[in-house]
Amino acid sequence: IAVDGSGNIYVGDRSKARIQKFTSSGVFVTKWGSNGTGDGQFKDPWRIAVDNSGNVYVADATNYRVQKFTSDGTFITKWGSQGTANGQFDLPRGIAIDSSGNVYVVDRNNNRIQKFDANGVFLSTFGSFGTANGQFNHPAGIALDTSGNIYVVDADNNRIQMFDSNGTFILKWGIGQFNTPRGIAIDSNNNVFIADTDSHRIQKFK
Length: 206
Fold this sequence. Notes:
Layout: E1 2-3, E2 9-13, E3 18-22, E4 28-32, E5 45-50, E6 56-60, E7 65-69, E8 75-79, E9 92-97, E10 103-107, E11 112-116, E12 122-126, E13 139-144, E14 150-154, E15 159-163, E16 169-173, E17 183-186, E18 192-196, E19 201-205
Antiparallel strand pairs: 1-2, 2-3, 3-4, 5-6, 6-7, 7-8, 9-10, 10-11, 11-12, 13-14, 14-15, 15-16, 17-18, 18-19
């Protein structure tokens, strides 16, 4: 789920391979997508993000790509394929966009975060498999605070890691507090909300 600047709500309807759009009061607006590999089709649309212009980015997980659409679902572009090279993915899951329009993608099975510009041009990457600071074990959600710092849900390490906009490690927390966390959201006051999945609860941090 993602919300644009006007309060419209976008929902990834995974089993039906489509995106649905609603007003802030839940009134249906439009939908797009079907199962497949073509432009505008999906296989497991996992996460959604919306940029400041209202464009919608979808982590199309088992098509190993990101797709970009206008706010009404018109296809704009796509990037990615299956693999380990820069710009390739192995199950892209989380996605977030900074104030400059750069796109951060959680490349789950490659245990890294990849950064792209708004057109899908590869910029940088950080992370690897492990338990040390800056390493991941199946990262899931991602979110940015008002300063552009990056928060990554390091799911199977049961922790949250925070990085600056260049991917430099800042801090971590959560060992002993989480049981396979997956989702994350940050409000305008930089409060951090974590979906503590297997504990069946939401936790809030400052």
